Amino acid sequence: MKKLTAFILRLLGWKAMSGVAPESKCIILGAPHTSALDFVISWLYYTSVGGKAYVMVKKEFFFWPVGYIVRWMGGIPVDRTRGANVLKQVVDEFKTRDYLHLAIAPEGTRKPTARWKGGFHTMARLADVPVYLGYFDWGKKEIGFNEKFELTDDLNADLKRVRQWYKDKGVQGKHPELFNTGNDLD
């Protein structure tokens, strides 16, 4: 599978800029998330470098035969119904697995958003796992992740630093008009 996905990635014009995260458990942020194709490109990339990344997917997608494919591609079912605690579900996944590289879109949506989600921050701190800043740059067709991002106790300051990193990196989404690193970064 590794060689096949590497071939497909190259055929599509993409270049892998890094390998697999060194820890057995971590969170890898994925931005800019402006298209459903981001998942496909990310899956091809991480599989091509020998990794297995997981993503949270609402449990309603786990019906036959789609559920089998979603799970095979790294989908972890989460209950997002009223009263369900997604944060606890994810932290429990980290506690019960020996290996979990969880990919999360900090924007929380493919639409432009002024405020990025901080759930990854809370998850990482509660599960005691590192965070990496992953990117898929549709302009340069480069995909990879940066070194470990050190979290502090200040969620808002960390979100500001994360957004600034993506802004400085100059990554471009498939739909650039949908990616907002925030003009409010003062």
Automatic annotation (TrEMBL):
Please name the SUPFAM superfamilies in this protein's record. Answer: Glycerol-3-phosphate (1)-acyltransferase
Gene Ontology terms describing biological process: phosphatidic acid biosynthetic process
Q: In which pathway does it act?
A: Lipid metabolism
Presence of keyword Nucleus:
no
Which residue spans adopt a coiled-coil conformation according to this UniProt entry? none
- Alphabetical UniProt keywords: Acyltransferase, Transferase
Report a single Gene Ontology molecular function.
1-acylglycerol-3-phosphate O-acyltransferase activity
Is-annotated flag, keyword Acyltransferase? Answer: yes
* Stretches assigned to the Phospholipid/glycerol acyltransferase domain: 27-136
For this protein, the record's PANTHER family field holds: 1-ACYL-SN-GLYCEROL-3-PHOSPHATE ACYLTRANSFERASE, PHOSPHOLIPID_GLYCEROL ACYLTRANSFERASE DOMAIN-CONTAINING PROTEIN
Q: Which named protein is this?
A: Acyltransferase
Species of origin: Prolixibacter bellariivorans
